[in-house]
Write a structure and sequence with these properties.
It is built from 6 helices and 10 strands, in the order E-H-E-H-E-H-E-E-E-E-H-E-H-H-E-E. The chain has helices spanning 19-29, 43-51, 64-72, 112-123, 131-137, 144-165; strands at 7-12, 34-38, 56-59, 83-87, 92-95, 100-103, 106-108, 128-130, 172-175, 179-182. The strands form 2 sheets. Strands 3-2-1-4-5-6-7 form a 7-stranded mixed beta sheet, with helices on both faces.
């Protein structure tokens, strides 16, 4: 990725001991603000994040509105609004401006619908997202039965592409008759 982002989000998981090396790599690659999303609220992790160069640590869960406001504080409005999301445990990078995704350095060639689904599920990491919500995201029918096969086709292709870049990688979990959950 030759361009530099205006902001980098890194999602921390307690099971990932290598998040600080990911943050160090981002810090060496660019000068953009780095925001760590932290699920476990451990004050030691928060202190370590600041020591390794985080500009802010946001505790999860938080509302989308709060996250947007806090992220907006770091964006320089004169810059292009490039936003990368980096999920350290699996090396997933999402560039929302260019609508591109990379997994462990391998470019995922996604359709707009696949990118939209991946981005939405990644932002809601760990949450069960109802099928009807995902169908609505795709601009599909207003009933679950009408859009389920389309949704399942998009997700099946997305999962196949992710496994092509990272064999054994399948972070999108189907929750029987309910929806899907992203588990990086």
């Amino acid at each position: 990725m030759g361009r530099h982002p205006a902001l980098v989000l890194i999602q921390h998981h307690a099971s990932d001991p290598g998040w600080h090396s990911a943050m160090g790599g981002v810090r060496r690659a660019c000068r953009a603000p780095v925001v760590l999303l932290q699920a476990d609220h451990d004050p030691h992790v928060r202190a370590e994040a600041y020591r390794h160069g985080a500009d802010e640590v946001i505790g999860l869960p938080c509302s989308e509105a709060e996250l947007r406001r806090r992220v907006a504080c770091h964006l320089d409005h004169s810059m292009a609004k490039s936003l990368w999301v980096f999920l350290a445990p699996m090396g997933l990078q999402l560039d929302y401006e260019m609508q591109t995704a990379r997994l462990n350095g391998c470019e995922l060639l996604l359709t707009p619908s696949e990118f939209k689904l991946l981005g939405y599920l990644a932002r809601r990491s760990g949450d069960i997202v109802p099928k009807l919500e995902l169908i609505g995201l795709l601009g599909g029918p207003s009933t679950e039965s009408d859009g389920t096969s389309t949704l399942e086709t998009h997700l099946s292709r997305l999962r196949k592409k992710m496994r092509g870049c990272a064999p054994g990688c399948d972070p999108i979990e189907a929750i029987n008759r309910v929806g899907y959950r992203f588990n990086p």
